[in-house]
Amino acid sequence: MNRPTTRFSDDRRRLAMLHSASGGHLSREFHDFKKSAAPSRILFYRDGAWTDFSPAATVALRAHFVAGKTSFKLPIAGSCYLFDFRSMSQTDTDTNVANSIAWVDAHGRCVFPTSAIGNQSLPPPPPPIPLSESPAESADCDSEGSTATSLGRAGWNGAEACREGDKYFTPVASWFLKDYRRYAPTVVITAIHRCTISASRSKAFQLQEQMTKAARGDANIKVSWYGASAEEVAAVVSHGFGKPANARPGSPVGGFGLHLSALPFSHSSAVEANSSDGERHMLLCRVILGRPEKVNTASEEQHHPSSDEFDSGVDVTANPKHYVVWSTHMNTHIIPDFIVSYKIPNRPRSAANSAPRLMFLQLLAEMRRLLPSWMMRIAEDFYKQYQERKISKEVFIRNIRGLVGDKLLVSIVKIIRRRH
């Protein structure tokens, strides 16, 4: 067993932060060591995930468990560890670094700690975007855009309000606004809530992660966005997902299921406001993709994986932006961690060209979802020329029409209008 490392990818840091925010995998206080049957599986928490001990280590640990030894030293893979079944911990005697341990006993009972010790040695989440940047110059959040105007919002049974300044608010706000500002520069977050999911739902997700990892070699967990009405958010947090649907028109991934967008593309999951005050909502979730398959936009009637070789659907297999989780997998492969509530106020028209500029920014944001990178570079060069007044508005529009084609351009404009 390798020693813990101190270098993590961005996705690993994000997943670790979400793991901590949701109370850890399978949070359940362990009160009585003697109530548990002998373990059939023993796991350790490290690098943001639960991993099975090797078969040899599992046999040795089970033998100590059955013998009633609650604290003992055991050499594994060239290192010596102090194990304590009561505190559910594993400590490297050389480095004094501790990790949580857990097990599934012979009766199928999951015995997991309240929190993972391994979290304490994780580096902090990615630094938040500087709050002083102007939305006109950056897609990131500023002090005005991240201010929550209704932090005490009632109605989320199974969620707790996050306050500005706590360790979750700023990273989640930054992830949301970094992309959404490209689509709607005036967007403002009104509240962020942390979901407090039941132990049974957490267990289902944890066990699915382990089964997928065993079957595929990697559970392939991603952080993603899911836009929903206030009523659907309340139902998801309290009871789970229950509304699979066809992909929206213009979506780059088809199929009938739950459609989510990758972390850098929050605006892609936006839904229209159905409240009188114009408030909208987005769920930040962890998703077990397992082995995904490409699902074409024409596959409107696909309700399940095309074969047992796949678990989920994506728009492209390399660096997907959009996911579809089939209805049979919704409540085992997805777990919500945060609710982001937001509004898009109308921006005062301080200049005659403010409306065209906003429309063009929205147009470019939608085009990024649908066009290849080489084509977007050309479109953004046209927009730069327009900004620098090297070409007129009419020439810019004519160039975009020639690049994209009228049919796709009309569908993009319809998507933008439906969201307002």
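^ that was protein a. below is b, sequence first then the tokens
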Amino acid sequence: MAAADLMVIVWNVILHRIATIYWINTFLLHTPVCRFILFMSPAAIDISVWLTVSFTFDRLVAICCQKLKTKYCTEKTAVVVITTVSSLLCLKNIPWPFLYSSYYNWMQFGCMLSTNFFFDPIWIAYSWIEQLLTPVIPFFLILLFNIVTIRRILIASRGRMSLRKHSSDRDEKDPELMNRRRSIILLFAISSSFILLWITTVIYFIYVRITTAFRRRYQSTTFPDFQEAGIMLQLLSSCTNTAIYTITQRKFRNLLLSSIKYPFTLLGKLVKFGGKHY
């Protein structure tokens, strides 16, 4: 998930948002390169969002389905889920480059969205599928998974606390209850940040689709400030997961620190080896 969030920052924020505005007359504005960026940008967002859904479902299985947990919550399953989700979402975004053409007939420069996207029934249907898959369906799936998971944790915690009242170690801290609290905090932090940061985009999508604003978008964007605010917030959501992991997960913090220290450790070994060799 952290890697997918990093890809969103690279493709959407740096190459799509910043480069097209400030890096004028670079190879990034050549139509084939521009098309590839416009393919990778939605693909990166889709993968980031659906890996969040996959993570939420994984926690649901781990906490609520003990029989399925031993088979599903494994590294092998994680690899299969990540590979399948990434491949399917890349295939889903293949039509995007075909919607864009060069600004000029005599040279490959820039990417201009075809007006067919707003009038052709096939492209209108594709736009509906694209928006429903990200973020409308994930929005409600994450909400549903977390309600079920947190409800199960609370019920189990109440039962465990009532049993501990009659045991001899009732005054000691219960590590199981502490782990469950951490699970609730992590789920709530990731899911609430996703829901809060994507809700502007979801509201804008619903408004545009239930009115005639969608067909008028080839001329002008309806409420452009509201749309840009939604885009800014949804891109910000890709930065929050890594920060949440860093705060709540000790193993993630250790791995992150190890990756930061690794170049310096490697450099120290090379210097030490070079000194001995000399």
